[in-house]
């Protein structure tokens, strides 16, 4: 086959040699994921894995009484749906596209076959699953012990790390992802804008002072970022 994969688009795929990429992407699709598109619901069997290029997908946990909160986000640093590599059980989370863009889509059967045959594919995906689990754990600690402003700053920083440029979100959407009231996000965004840390208008956020935004965040941001960074540095 002629491989049309472009380097620099997904960190997991970038870390693989071309021979493994040819096998892994033997029957892939480069798909456009639209904003608010649901890739799979909680309790649904996952049929595809997605390797984001410039989109971001949020994993959302929903309670029985209808409340929800983001537990992790996945950009070009990872893969959506990798749960199936460890268990054939239905997903525990809802996968929701929060930034539109492209992703490599691979069938469940194809990736399971290559996962068991190719050592480096096996290694990289298992390590990414470990990193994703770490992020979920830190986000759980963060929502329990850290202030909403710190969580909001962490959210903006991680989003910016995984997709450069303007951050496009309504306050209502951010509130839903963080599991808080919209008015809380409005107050926090107003304070950060008053301090010239961000500029927020018409659903778009520009980070003006990243260093101060990092200081207003919490150790969870550094822990999540460093976990991902150390993995890809080791793979380089």
Automatic annotation (TrEMBL):
**Pfam families reported in the protein's UniProt record:** HTH_Crp_2
Which is one Gene Ontology cellular component term of this protein? Answer: cytosol
The GO terms this record gives for MF are: DNA binding; DNA-binding transcription factor activity
Can you give the residue ranges of the Cyclic nucleotide-binding domain? 12-100
| InterPro entries linked to this entry | cNMP-bd_dom, cNMP-bd_dom_sf, Env_Response_Regulators, HTH_CRP, RmlC-like_jellyroll, WH-like_DNA-bd_sf, WH_DNA-bd_sf
Signal peptide residues are none
PROSITE patterns tied to this protein:
CNMP_BINDING_3 (PS50042), HTH_CRP_2 (PS51063)
Q: Which UniProt keywords apply?
A: DNA-binding, Transcription, Transcription regulation
**In what residue span(s) does the HTH crp-type domain sit?**
146-211
> What PANTHER family does the record point to?
CRP FAMILY TRANSCRIPTIONAL REGULATORY PROTEIN (PTHR24567), HTH-TYPE TRANSCRIPTIONAL REGULATOR ARCR (PTHR24567:SF74)
What is the designated name of this protein? CRP-like cAMP-binding protein
